Structure formats: structure tokens, C-alpha cells
């Protein structure tokens, strides 16, 4: 019980204050900013807020990696921003500034499927108040906030074929990361072994079987993410008749 209540600088434990508190704060902020934007901001102002989110999240990941490089022990085999959420945080301003629909189609499923797993089972070696701790939560919860803002404030919606676009784009990303892992002898995207902390991958078998299981469940998982959009669209169509 004390382990759940007391802050420490060791690896973040699932269910601890260091795990739950950032999620609660981000959830409250996300609900507030979306409600405030819808009630008080014009379309142009919403788009400006969207840009700020992208800059903030990307700035966090750039600052963190700049800090690691300044320490003089930066390793290209472990430290490059090639894990999915870090990579998305790095490129997210491209989406928040351009608001390209094809990017939304891909990012919606990547962020909700991938980032949610990272939020539920955080892989943070050094807890509060380390730089890595704040970087981790800004990136993961920031990406989710951006996607929810796109959906509920900017009114962007996926189509059914968006599921398959996102899936195929992820396959391209995986192939590229596999090649990088091969040449660097690295484990980006956990393609060669599971993370050190507890994760959903622990329930999917050993390598390489967990990779095959993930491939098999991706489409059903993406369909589950799409389901609320499908149901609300059908309800709107019925109400308009």
C-alpha cells in the first residue's frame, strides 16, 4: 500500500501515484480545453491552439534528446527517437500545422492504439522528478490530447478505409525499423525483445510470437477504435432523415 502512495525515483510502478496522477491531470485538462475551445474560440483560434500543442510536445522530445546528447553518453542503439511515441512526438507539428487528413487517418489509430498502451503500462526507468519522467508523460498524454482535440474540437473524423491506410502505413514503419535494428543491433519499437517493464506484450508469448499476435489483433483493435465513429455517424444519419 505504501508503495502506491509514496513518490520515489525508481522505475515507475503501475498503479502508483506517479502513474495515475499525470493521467488524471491530463484528462481534466483535455476535457477543459476542448469544452473551452468549442464554446469560446473561432475555427482559426482552435487551429492556433492545435499548433501550440504540436510545438509543445515536439519541443519536449527535442529538448530531452538534446539534453541526453549534452551529457556525452548518447547511444544510437538505445536513445534515438525511433520508438513509436517518440517518433510521433517528433513529427507531430507537421500534422498540427498542416492538418492533412491523410495524416489524421494514420495518426488516429497509431496514437490511440500505441500511446494508450504506453499510458496504461508506462516504461519509465527513473520516476518523478526526473527529466525522463516529464518527457514520457508530455509525449504520451500530449499525443492523445492532440488526437482528441482534432476529433472533438476540429471535428475531424476517420472513414472505414482509414483503418487499412493506418495499418499499411504501420507495416512500412515496422519494416524500416527492422532494418535500422538490424544495422544498429538495437531494439527500437521492441521488435527484438519486450520492454523491461510490464506491458501488454507479456501476455502475447515470447519473441517472435508476440509480434505475430500483435499483427493479428491490430485490425480488430483498429476496428474497435473506429466503432464509436461508426455508431455516431449512423445515429446522425438516422436523425437527419
TrEMBL record:
<feature type="transmembrane region" description="Helical">
    <location>
        <begin position="20"/>
        <end position="37"/>
    </location>
</feature>
<feature type="transmembrane region" description="Helical">
    <location>
        <begin position="49"/>
        <end position="68"/>
    </location>
</feature>
<keyword id="KW-0472">Membrane</keyword>
<dbReference type="InterPro" id="IPR011737">
    <property type="entry name" value="CHP02206_TP0381"/>
</dbReference>
<feature type="transmembrane region" description="Helical">
    <location>
        <begin position="107"/>
        <end position="128"/>
    </location>
</feature>
<keyword id="KW-0812">Transmembrane</keyword>
<protein>
    <submittedName>
        <fullName>TIGR02206 family membrane protein</fullName>
    </submittedName>
</protein>
<feature type="transmembrane region" description="Helical">
    <location>
        <begin position="209"/>
        <end position="231"/>
    </location>
</feature>
<feature type="transmembrane region" description="Helical">
    <location>
        <begin position="74"/>
        <end position="95"/>
    </location>
</feature>
<dbReference type="Pfam" id="PF14808">
    <property type="entry name" value="TMEM164"/>
</dbReference>
<keyword id="KW-1133">Transmembrane helix</keyword>
<feature type="transmembrane region" description="Helical">
    <location>
        <begin position="166"/>
        <end position="184"/>
    </location>
</feature>
<feature type="transmembrane region" description="Helical">
    <location>
        <begin position="134"/>
        <end position="154"/>
    </location>
</feature>
